[in-house]
Amino acid sequence: MKKFMASFLIFNPRLKLALQALATPLKRGIATPALRKGLIGVAIVLTLCGASITQALGATIEIPTVNAHGAILMEAETGRILWGKNEHEPLAMASTTKIMTAILALESGRMDETVIVSKKAAAAPRVKLFLRPDEKVRLGDLMLALMLESSNDAAVAIAEHLSGSVEDFCREMTEKARELGAQNTIFETPNGLDAGSHQSTPYDLAIITRYALTVPGFVELTNTRSANFSSSSQQFSLHNKNRLLDEFKGANGVKTGFTNKAGHCFVGAAKRDGMQLISVVLASGWGQQGRNQKWVDTKEILSFGFDNYEFQTIITAEALAGSMPVTRSRTRAVDYVYNYGARVPLNKSEKEHVYVELYIPVSMKAPVSAGDVMGSARVFIGTDFYKEIPLLATENATRHDFKTSLEKVLNSYLGLVTKTPVDITLPEFFAFPDILPPT
């Protein structure tokens, strides 16, 4: 038995560490905060595919080779990073900025309002619609110019109309980025032109885009191939500059960008077989070489994702996870289930290294109610923590011990004597340590 246990622990090194962590405080008579709360009584490892986690992950997968200084590949449903290169480094991001401009505009719900173009908006540098001061344009039409042809004057006009000034609009853009978890993003222009500390990271742009794909109207806007509209003084014909829509299967977004500081940038998106991927490349190069390289880099990254990853269901929502003994109750045990499921994109190597640790107490004292949290399940991919899922009780377990039995007797007797309902609650002192076993 000892030999088997030693082999099992070597095969599952995380279980060995977990049991050591549990045993150490108990040996010394010290309860850790987690143990004091009764959250960690037993750590059970469920290796889903059976292979040792000491094997090298991704040994047979060729990672993307890109020219971009900063890049990332993210799966949209889970937010999992599948690959990255300097993904947390702050960089200039050019007109990929307009993704956030579009988010705020779409969420304002003011698409049918008329925008009066200011002198400041009309003076914005190329790329532009060549809007004129006092020209009147529908906000929804300016959105088409913003995302199809990256018009800088349209971005300024939108910002001023929605927030009163470019400065206030940029402050709102930065605040929204913080809400989404983009902590290293600062917006100082609504169009992405270089200014001050205007910056983001590949990771931040990916999570901003992940959110943008859920905003009603965003995907439809960025997938519009061409559009025609009129202002109070001009007619416009627009064509989408996103080559990916025509050159990559499943492409559905999102935005190009270039400035002298940022180089050629692109945030891309594509969906195949139910998997939505988001790619970001910043500083893919300059000049004509850089202009083409951003498409090469993007296709390389997205192809890597679709070629190597597919969804796997690790845990099914409300599936039975186990049964826990209950003390001081007629109910001997209560089943517990996973509160929600875990569906994750995995490559072939990772499929062999997924496992779940259940952190549960040895037993629970009644009362227990259906829906009570009994512990948690922690999902690991290799040695990397992925997700924690609460374990919930499926039924009630009413308390039944010396205290509650005595309360019932007293309440019944006094009720008969006084001929009125009596509800006496005794101090916990009367409970005694399991003096009345379950029957």
Mean pLDDT: 86
CATH class category name of the largest domain: Alpha Beta
Numbering strands along the chain, what is their spatial order in the largest sheet? 1-15-17-18-13-12-16
Taking the sheet with the most strands, its summary is: 7 strands, mixed
Our measurement of the CA-to-CA distance between the termini, rounded to an integer number of angstroms, reads: 35 Å
Q: Fraction of residues in helices?
A: 25-40%
Coarse shape: elongated
CATH topology of the largest domain: Beta-lactamase
Using only C-alpha atoms, the radius of gyration works out to 30 Å
Name of the CATH homologous superfamily of the largest domain: DD-peptidase/beta-lactamase superfamily
Tally of contiguous helical segments: 13
Work out the count of structural domains.
Answer: 3
**Strands, total number:** 18
How would you describe the overall organization of this protein?
With 439 residues, the protein is α+β, with helices and mostly antiparallel strands. It has helices at residues 2-11, 13-27, 33-36, 98-108, 119-122, 139-148, 152-163, 166-180, 202-212, 218-222, 244-247, 287-308, 402-418, and strands at 42-47, 70-75, 81-85, 114-116, 136-138, 226-230, 235-239, 251-259, 263-272, 275-282, 310-315, 320-327, 333-338, 342-346, 354-360, 364-365, 373-381, 384-393. The chain starts with a helix and ends in a 21-residue tail after the last helix. Strand 9 (263-272) and strand 10 form a beta hairpin. The chain contains 13 helices and 18 strands. It has a seven-stranded mixed beta sheet with strand order 1-15-17-18-13-12-16, with helices on one face. A five-stranded antiparallel beta sheet has the order 3-2-10-9-8, sandwiched between helices. The chain is elongated and about 95 Å long. Mean pLDDT is 86; it is low at 1-42, 49-56 and 435-439. It has three domains: 2-54 and 313-393, Peptidoglycan synthesis regulatory factor (PBP3), Domain 2, CATH 2.60.410; 70-308, Beta-lactamase, CATH 3.40.710; 402-431, no CATH class. Helix 4 crosses helix 7, helix 6 packs antiparallel against helix 7 (152-163) and helix 7 (152-163) packs across helix 8 (166-180).
